[in-house]
Amino acid sequence: MTRHFTTIEQLSQHDLKRIYKHATSPFNDETLKGQGVALVFERPSLRTRASSSSAVHELGGYVTFFSDEEIGLDSRESAEDIGRTLSEMYSMCAMRVRNHMVFSRIRAATRERMSLVNLLSDVAHPTQAVADVLTIAEHFSDGDVSKLAGLKVAYVGDATNVTRSLAVALLRLGVNVTVGAPQGYQLVAGGEEDPARVSGGGTLVVSDSPGDAVRDADVVYTDAWVSMGFEAETEQRRRDLTPFRLDRALLERAKPGAMVLHCLPAHRGDEITDDVLDSAQSLVWRQVYHRRSAMLGVLRWIKEGTND
């Protein structure tokens, strides 16, 4: 059986539980012995490349990195032909892509021969969500993700792919999620990673008030205002999102001692201020650490399925 990891929503509760467990439990470093993982990056990332590479190596495998300049996804060569080529040499391909539909196209073209991992798309960022859950659990419940129910996590700023995957993951664990964003930047229902479809877990609230969003929050999360591909909108986005800047005054509206998350890179002075990012309440560097943990969990879960 070929397993894929492209959204949080696609996974059963059992599979998510296995990923969280595999992420932090002891492992045999020969899990990927002699096996290669292709890393295809249409978009650059320090943490994603570092965590993916280190996780594969720790499991005994090796990586080959392909940049957009090398492969030209859908410009130099079609996504289907790239998938067909890589599937002749690799059993797994982890991709950071602009268009989420690339995953379904490659799955169809390769007839499910190669496992796919979403390292970021326009729709979802599931490996980041796993890392965030692990970070929150480490701080609040000694690493036990099953004991997070009832916490409140507030996300403020531009509700993006990161927000969607994070919200789906947290809601399914019984965490209450509030998203504070102005009109035009708020969550939109639909798509393959939709928090609005989660039922029976935590509650989802959307707000156009940053103060209301963070009130009584245990965790306050933010991300860059200008994602890759939106650079031409930089000045307009700054004007629209400045009220949602995570500064000391906004953080003080959350619970005393509320923790701070940011998936990085941070644009200091825009979405977050130095005194918050560098404070004792910031867990951002543990998030970085758990990016590796998340990849270990995903890769081990994929191999577990292959061996079923």
Structure commentary:
The chain has 2 domains: 13-125 and 291-306, Rossmann fold (3-Layer(aba) Sandwich); 128-287, 3-Layer(aba) Sandwich (Rossmann fold), CATH 3.40.50. It has a 5-stranded parallel β-sheet with strand order 7-6-5-8-9. Strands 2-1-3-4 form a 4-stranded parallel β-sheet. It contains 12 helices and 9 strands. It has helices at 13-24, 46-58, 68-71, 79-87, 101-110, 126-140, 161-171, 210-214, 234-241, 248-251, 274-277, 284-306, and strands at 36-41, 62-67, 92-96, 115-120, 152-156, 176-180, 204-207, 219-222, 259-262. α7 links the parallel β5 (152-156) and β6. Helix content is 38%, strand content 15%. It is an alpha/beta fold and 308 residues long. The protein is globular.
Secondary-structure topology with pairs:
Layout: H1 13-24, E1 36-41, H2 46-58, E2 62-67, H3 68-71, H4 79-87, E3 92-96, H5 101-110, E4 115-120, H6 126-140, E5 152-156, H7 161-171, E6 176-180, E7 204-207, H8 210-214, E8 219-222, H9 234-241, H10 248-251, E9 259-262, H11 274-277, H12 284-306
Helix pairs in contact: 1-12, 2-12, 4-5, 6-7, 6-12
